[in-house]
Amino acid sequence: MKKIIAAFDELKYNKSTAEYAISLAKQNDAFLVGIFLEDHTYHSYKIFDLIREEGGGMDTRRRHLDKKDAKIRARSVEEFEKGCRAANLQFSVHKDREIAIRELLEESIYADLLIIYSGETLTHYTEKPPTRFIHELLPHVQCPVLVVPTQFKAIDSLVLLFDGEPSSVHAIKMLNYTLPALNNYSVEVVTVKPAKKGVNLPGKQLMKEFMDRHYPQATYTILKGDAETEITAFLRKKKQGAMVALGAYRRSDSSRAPRSRK
Q1: Contact criterion met (CB below 8 Å) for 242 and 186
Q2: Is the predicted pLDDT of residue 255 greater than 50, yes or no?
Q3: Do 157-245 and 3-148 have the same topology in CATH?
């Protein structure tokens, strides 16, 4: 039985993360752990909120706001547990109360898959995905990661990016091993070649021999041009239910945009 972990900001519970996590855990008969990040430096209120109200001291106001936060955190956990029970899953809840990024990285060492919302910030503010928190997480995480969108859409196909590098094959392997329930889905292997290069698949014979044992139904698409431009345009045309396995065409850690990774 695989172990899937799903990361949540207790103060801004993301339903999409829960829906993907519960759906995939149920499909793959996996044990699901909800990681509720309670970074002690993070609250729903700001310093200004402690002093703007008339009457009562700052300490009194802080205690009042902390109680409100505690109720929000409790409701988040309750909603997750309710969804897991409805799906008849084996599950657990971890409340990590130290620095969020450190806690989540440690949790990833002991997991087969991490699911997290692309807009997660663990701050008061919203950021355009992929957020700073996601950028800091991905280079150091110790298990495959599924970065999910704002709204849940049932997965109905797989797009496997392949550039001939070992990392791209490893991503395909991990997707196959980690989520076996998806192995019979529609699968498309996508490769980008420079405009003046041929259209042969890198390592054609070895790659097809490998794919025949893992995704025998796979089709192959060769795009021509700049990898980032062509892949972006290609993915924009795909249906929302496509899961993208990204181990290929990666830029530097400081500039790459994370997508669903295996």
Answers
A1: no
A2: no
A3: yes
